[in-house]
Design goal:
With about 240 residues, this protein is mostly beta strands. The protein has a single domain, classed as Sandwich (Jelly Rolls), CATH 2.60.120. Helix content is about 15%, strand content about 35%. The protein is built from 2 helices and 13 strands. Strands 1, 3, 5, 6, 8, 11 and 13 form a 7-stranded antiparallel sheet that branches. Strands 2-4-7-12-9-10 form a 6-stranded antiparallel sheet, with no helix packed on it. A hairpin with a 6-residue loop joins strand 9 and strand 10. Helix 1 packs antiparallel against helix 2. It starts with a helix and ends with a helix.
Amino acid sequence: MKTILSIVAIAAVSSSASGALVAAWDFQTTTNGGTALLVSPSTPTTLVANFGAGSLYLNGTNGSSSFFIPATGSTNTEVNAFSGTTVNADAGIGLSTTTTGAAALAIANSSANGKSLVFLLNLTGLQNLTVSLAAQRTTSGFTSQVWETSSDGTNWSTWGSFTSGTAAGTLATAFATSGVLNLTGTSALDNAATAYVRVTFTGATSSTGNNRLDNIIFNADVVPTPGAVALLGLAGLVMRRRR
């Protein structure tokens, strides 16, 4: 009896706390209402998640900076769309594996040093937010990305950062499987109905320097229901009594 009850309790909690997709951007897929990228000067500055639910802002709202896009052409633009990668294109989610055309978001130009984009997510009933993405930089592109979190869009806490280099998990000069960027789970946004994630770019040294971002995936754990937690506690009590 105690073994069966323990298995049932563990299964219930495991099911309630399993990882869940929050939002993902491949910058191409529109079947779920997501925003597709276009090259400058038509690059959108608000991009709805291609999978899950969330929005990405580069227009000066929700704590983001206003990124410059010229009225015509792409001269001095601070945001653009370039070819992408299959790196981190999770097939289980359905992220696009098309890499040509407007397939990756490009933050460009040393004039954008110190500017920030912001993801807006809903983490109601979720905890331990994680993020993974593919990224590359040109030799004169941004050498640092600082990632921060906020539950009000005003007060920010550092989540982590990525810097240039050749080791796995750094901003390499080419998309690479070993260079997938990951930030481990943060509890700062647990159960936040309005969760902000801000990314600030620095270190670019020319007007053509850029970072490309592609296949950005936010996941989180489902908060266990009170009933599942109570069941696990009951299983533990039964096991102690049987001993």
